[in-house]
């Protein structure tokens, strides 16, 4: 082999080794696959509950249900009281979004006006469960609604009034918060079911609040004296105010038929005392269901888009027996 050939062979070998080394270092051992993320537990959950207010015994029981369940399960509950103001609920939701909570459970004071803040929660990838009353926003803006069928409650109330006034008559309505899903639904269901021989003489809001309902009841009793056969009252707290007004006006228990909603202890007492003839149940004890759903969401599990509470109607005949068992 000539010297030149030997030199060329050496050069080729050198070049090849240079190219190979430039192609990079030998591949490192593949990184371990990321460990499957551990299943979330209640103690990992921060749940935001911007409560709408404290207008009734129902609401007090609803708040207690969330606070007690959170304590029991070890959930970190971010609770606030919006004092019936939608803008306060929206501010509280924004603070929760900023804080990066895991889930927001919203009991909306009214139906309209939630689109912007629901979009903000969606953008921040925080799921929102609508609790108790409904919202008018598109269903794609929230993950689920847990609460009562308010139209059905109104229908049940209408059926009770039909039974109480088989020959027809005049009724008055004191409704809940104007624009709320609860008031709108109950009013709608009531009207859809009421017999044609029953006339709604008048309807005013009492804002689900006994203090606001009392002057409405007093004015009704004065204006329609001698013409009133029945009252449809959207909650027990306001019905208690109506009872006070009837007592002052000299009306005797049962003289004017009354159908109320909620099934609180106060409602049971009014049935025992003969003032209320039927109390349509609306269950406020939603804390356990909501937190269970929130945990499922945190673990990427499937949830139902609508969970309606199973409810009944209570009557005076069983009121005394059931009163001691009532949780709210
Ligand atoms: O949204 C539920 C209603 O709100 C209850 O019937 C009433 O008592 C409460 O204030």
What does this structure look like?
The protein has 2 domains: about 130 residues, Response regulator (Rossmann fold, 3-Layer(aba) Sandwich), CATH 3.40.50.2300; about 130 residues, Rossmann fold. Helix content is about 45%, strand content about 20%. The protein has 11 helices and 12 strands. It has a 6-stranded parallel β-sheet, sandwiched between helices. The N and C termini lie far apart (about 105 Å). The N terminus is likely disordered. The site of alpha-L-arabinofuranose has 12 residues, from helix 2 and strand 9.
What is the highest CATH level, the class of the largest domain?
Answer: Alpha Beta
Question: Which architecture of the largest domain would the CATH scheme give at its second level?
Answer: 3-Layer(aba) Sandwich
- Low-confidence blocks of residues: 1-7, 9-34
- The percent of residues in helical segments reads 40-55%
Structure characteristics:
12 strands; 2 domains; alpha/beta; Rossmann fold; elongated; disordered N terminus; 328 residues; 11 helices; single chain; six-stranded mixed β-sheet; six-stranded parallel β-sheet; binds alpha-L-arabinofuranose
List the helices and strands and how they pair.
Blueprint: H1 3-22, E1 46-51, H2 57-73, E2 76-81, H3 86-99, E3 103-106, H4 115-123, E4 128-131, E5 144-147, H5 150-164, E6 169-175, H6 181-193, E7 198-205, H7 210-223, E8 230-233, H8 236-248, E9 257-262, H9 265-272, E10 278-281, H10 287-298, E11 306-308, E12 313-314, H11 316-322
Parallel strand pairs: 1-2, 1-3, 3-4, 4-5, 5-11, 6-7, 6-8, 8-9, 9-10
Antiparallel strand pairs: 10-12
The chain binds alpha-L-arabinofuranose.
Alpha-L-arabinofuranose binds next to α2 and β9.
């Amino acid at each position: 082999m000539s010297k030149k050939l030997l030199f060329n062979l050496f050069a080729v070998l050198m070049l090849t080794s240079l190219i190979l080394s430039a192609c990079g270092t030998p591949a490192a051992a593949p990184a371990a696959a990321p460990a499957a993320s551990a299943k979330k537990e209640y103690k990992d959950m921060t749940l935001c509950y911007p409560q709408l207010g404290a207008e009734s015994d129902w609401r007090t029981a609803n708040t207690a249900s969330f606070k007690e369940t959170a304590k029991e399960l070890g959930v970190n509950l971010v609770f606030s009281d919006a004092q019936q103001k939608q803008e306060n609920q929206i501010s509280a939701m924004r603070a929760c979004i900023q804080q990066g909570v895991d889930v927001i459970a919203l009991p909306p004071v009214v139906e309209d006006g939630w689109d912007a803040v629901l979009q903000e929660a969606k953008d921040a990838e925080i799921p929102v469960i609508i609790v108790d009353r409904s919202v008018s926003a598109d269903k794609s803006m929230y993950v689920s609604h847990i609460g009562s069928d308010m139209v059905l409650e109104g229908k049940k109330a209408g059926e009770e009034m039909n039974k109480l006034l088989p020959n027809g008559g005049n009724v008055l309505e004191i409704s809940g918060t104007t624009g709320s899903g609860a008031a709108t639904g109950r009013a709608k269901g009531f009207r859809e079911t009421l017999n044609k021989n029953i006339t709604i003489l008048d309807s005013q809001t009492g804002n689900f609040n006994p203090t606001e309902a009392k002057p409405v009841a007093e004015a009704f009793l004065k204006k329609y004296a001698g013409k009133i056969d029945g009252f449809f009252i959207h909650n027990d707290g306001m019905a208690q105010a109506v009872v006070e007004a009837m007592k002052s006006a000299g009306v005797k228990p049962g003289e004017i038929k009354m159908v109320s909603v909620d099934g609180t202890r106060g409602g049971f007492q009014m049935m025992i005392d003969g003032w209320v003839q039927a109390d349509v149940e609306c269950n406020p004890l939603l804390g356990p269901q909501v937190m269970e759903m929130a945990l499922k969401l945190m673990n990427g599990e499937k949830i139902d888009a609508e969970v309606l509470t199973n409810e009944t109607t209570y009557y005076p005949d069983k009121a005394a027996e059931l009163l001691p068992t009532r949780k709210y």
